[in-house]
Amino acid sequence: MKTSTLHYSVGALLYCPANNETIVNSLITQKFGSRFSLALCLEDTIADHHVKEAEDALIRSLKTLSKLSTKQNFYIPKIFIRVRNSGQIPELLERLGDARQLVTGFNIPKFCLEYADEYIDAVVQANKLYGQKIYMMPIFENAELINLQKRRQILYTLKEKLDAIEELVLNIRVGGNDLCHVFGFRRSACESIHDIKPIANIFADIITVFGTDYVISGPVWEYYTGDNWDNGLMRELSEDRLNGFVGKTVIHPNQIALVNAAYQVSSKDLADARSILNWNPQTGSLVSGSISGERMNERKTHFHWAEKILMLAEVYGVRE
Asked: Of 31, 195, 197, 219, which residue is 20 to 30 A from 239 by alpha carbon distance?
């Protein structure tokens, strides 16, 4: 289990097309608040024949943001670039010049066996070349994961590859929409991705393989206005958290606050976590009632949970 708050702090990752010319102004005016991360997308949100234009816009935006940050004080989120091929990683970093300091890392879409080594090598070389920590966040959304006969071998092979550079893997991410697309599924605002069993089963396998060693972030929720969109998102976030996800990819600023609220820690959980982690070793028993007297705390079985609660509390805060 990750024991650094950095891995839990990606939180609500706001997707933005890389050719969005208004993103710099939105950041300097803090339009989205100060508790989110940002992914500038060069993949699915950009038409194939407009990739070069989107790359140019991304470079302009980050260079402008870098210059303005020396003159103004405003919140700069963790910034990731969602690429469409491994060659974009060295090319973009070189073109960015000093503005590359704003890049926390790269989102790797449709991460699969065919291209895993290319992406891993590109990130490793970038870290060697520039002397700054540049992370990767592979996204498991490739259609090859649907194959039951091969899925687990694929996942364990990918884990072996990522374990070799574990310090450079900030999060594991999952792509619900891409997997749903293969089946022709689409959930309504009152339905959760966890209700779609073929997709939920894939997520369960990903969490089983990676969840003890990596932070795994939840999939996109498509709705951001209209009837029941917020209640639907809150329900899915509750199920995300129960199933081991931390954070979520978001596609609209309206979703950010709900994601942050969902990962706040209750005051009861925080009290119990502190009690478990500060257990008196002189006592003969490793089990006792909770601080509120409502449940059992057992040091040996709740220790990892308690560590995670403290990190979530530090990143997202505490609610009564």
From this structure: 31
CA proximity to 86, closest of 110, 69, 66 = 110
Render 253-315 in DSSP notation, one character per residue. GGGHHHHHHHTPEEHHHHHHHHHHHT--TTSS-SEEE-TTSSSEEEHHHHHHHHHHHHHHHHH
Measured CA to CA, the distance from residue 70 to residue 225 in angstroms comes to: 36
pLDDT at 291: 86
- Predicted TM-score (pTM) of the model is 0.96
Count of alpha carbons within 13 angstroms of residue 207, beta-carbon side: 17
- What pLDDT score was predicted for residue 83? 98
Given this model, what pLDDT does residue 280 score? 79
Q: What is the pLDDT, as a whole number, of residue 133?
A: 97
Q: Identify residue 163 by its one-letter amino acid code.
A: D
SS3 of 139-203: the string is EECCHHHHCHHHHHHHHHHHHHHHHCCHHHECCEEECHHHHHHHHCCCCCCCCCHHHCHHHHHHH
H/E stretch holding 15: strand 12-17
Which percentage of the chain shows pLDDT scores above 90?
93
Query: For the chain, what are the domain ranges?
Result: 5-263, 268-319
Distance, CA of 13 to chain centre? 6
Architecture in CATH of 5-263 = Alpha-Beta Barrel (3.20)
C-alpha pair distances (Å), 221 with each of 14, 165, 175: 11, 30, 10
**CA gap 41, 18 in Å, rounded:** 5
* Helix (H) or strand (E) run with residue 108 in it: strand 103-108
Report, as ranges of residue numbers, the positions in the chain whose pLDDT lies below 50: none
Instruction: Please tell me what DSSP assigns to residue 43.
Output: S
The pLDDT assigned to 286 comes to 80
* 41: nearest Cα among 85, 107, 137, 97: 107
- Which pair of structure tokens corresponds to residue 65? 């943001």
In 145-155, which positions are buried (b, 16+ CB within 10 angstroms) versus exposed (e)?
beeeeebeebb
